[in-house]
Write a structure and sequence with these properties.
Strand content: 35-45%
Helix content: 10-25%
Largest sheet: 9 strands, mixed
Oligomer: single chain
Order of helices and strands: EHEEEHEHEEEE
Radius of gyration: 14 Å
Number of domains: 1
CATH superfamily: 2,3-Dihydroxybiphenyl 1,2-Dioxygenase, domain 1
Shape: globular
Structural class: alpha+beta
CATH topology: 2,3-Dihydroxybiphenyl 1,2-Dioxygenase, domain 1
Length: about 140
């Protein structure tokens, strides 16, 4: 079951410049990490230093084979995905597959934050939307 909105992912090839833009908007980098399985670096920006609230995640490729690199090549920088925290990522992956979402991941993978497991699904119609399902180990969830 979806618990809450977690973050919106923004693809960028220049995380320093995109971070400056978010800083100019008044956001603060609240968390940073690497999602090795996806070959990306991730910086989470939040209002104030509230790492537990909704965030903007800057997603940047660490290698030419990173999935986000293909998105950047086709579309340039910008909105990449929306992420929802769920209570059981495996169950939500199955439920959304049954509802017609196309699974990008067949199994959850380690996310960029400690204790974070993620899986992506795609809804081509009606929105062309990439959705990230996020589950935190309750002891590791951002405060």
């Amino acid at each position: 079951m979806i618990i809450r909105f977690d973050h919106v992912g923004v693809a960028t090839g220049d995380p320093a410049a995109a971070g400056q833009l978010l800083s100019d908007l008044g956001l603060v980098r609240s968390d940073t990490g690497t999602a090795e399985a996806y070959g990306v670096s991730c910086d989470f920006w939040s209002p104030g230093a509230d790492a537990g609230g909704a965030a903007v995640e800057l997603v940047a490729p660490l290698c030419s084979t990173a999935a986000v690199q293909g998105h950047l090549d086709r579309h340039g920088p910008g909105l990449y995905h929306v992420a929802f925290e769920v209570d059981d990522v495996q169950a939500e992956l199955g439920r959304l597959r049954t509802a017609g979402f196309v699974p990008v991941d067949t199994e959850p993978k380690a996310g960029a934050r400690p204790g974070m497991r993620v899986a992506f699904v795609y809804a081509k119609r009606p929105a062309g939307l990439l959705v990230e399902l996020v589950q935190y180990d309750r002891t590791e969830r951002p405060a």
